[in-house]
Amino acid sequence: MELYLFNLLLLLLCFSVSISTVSSLNFDGVALLSLSKRWTSVPASISSSWNASDSTPCQWVGIECDNDHNVVSLKLTGYGISGQLGLEISRFRYLKILDLSVNKFSGKIPTELANCSLLENLDLYENGFSGEIPESLFAIPTLAYVHLYGNRLNGSIPGNVRNLSELVHLDLYENQFSGVIPSSIGNCSKLEDLYLAENQLIGELLKSLNKLENLVYLDVANNSLEVSIPLGSAI
């Protein structure tokens, strides 16, 4: 009987250790591993670094954390990653920087990205993202730098761009956007750089931009816009 109890306790102890090992990784670490499961091509430098046996992902390639081990920056520029950006991205509530530029991502930008309500920098340029920009994306009030150029995004530029009161740099160059530049972009009072070249935009340019007093650089080449810039204009 004593031997039986000893063996039972030993089994329970081993089981407990096993569970502890599996579940030791924190919430953001588990979310990153879930996110990567949607990627069809991942370089060894990432797959060998993103280790489920770690307690946090804070030492993983491309990851930066705050003092509480929350992921605040995900930077994986130029790793040749292919696949999709899944809805798991919504789990990173403290994320401020998302940089997946110069990869081979495809599919749509998930609407769930809007749950990253502290996001400041969004860099998804030079990928194969398609579809429309989710309106929910432009509901993130902290967004300051948005780089989406070199994709296959289409549809209209969301009118709720007016919500981006902190927006400094917006780059939608070389996509397939159509329609007019929303006049509501004039509410982005901090906007300094606006790149809209190589799209299919129409309409009169200044009606959309005449309120942007801080605008320094504007590129709207190769659209079908009616451009009439008065002498002495700073644009």
From TrEMBL:
Superkingdom, taxonomy of origin: Eukaryota
Domain Leucine-rich repeat-containing N-terminal plant-type: 26-66
Source organism: Prunus armeniaca (Apricot)
Keyword Lyase among UniProt keywords: no
Cellular-component GO terms for this entry: plasma membrane
An annotated Gene Ontology molecular function: ATP binding
EC number: 2.7.11.1
Catalytic activity: L-threonyl-[protein] + ATP = O-phospho-L-threonyl-[protein] + ADP + H(+); L-seryl-[protein] + ATP = O-phospho-L-seryl-[protein] + ADP + H(+)
Cellular compartments annotated: Cell membrane
Signal peptide per UniProt: 1-24
Enzyme class: transferase
Membrane topology: Single-pass type I membrane protein
UniProt keywords, alphabetically: ATP-binding, Cell membrane, Glycoprotein, Kinase, Leucine-rich repeat, Membrane, Nucleotide-binding, Phosphoprotein, Receptor, Repeat, Serine/threonine-protein kinase, Signal, Transferase, Transmembrane, Transmembrane helix
Major site of localization recorded for this protein: membrane
Designated name of the protein: non-specific serine/threonine protein kinase
Keyword Phosphoprotein recorded: yes
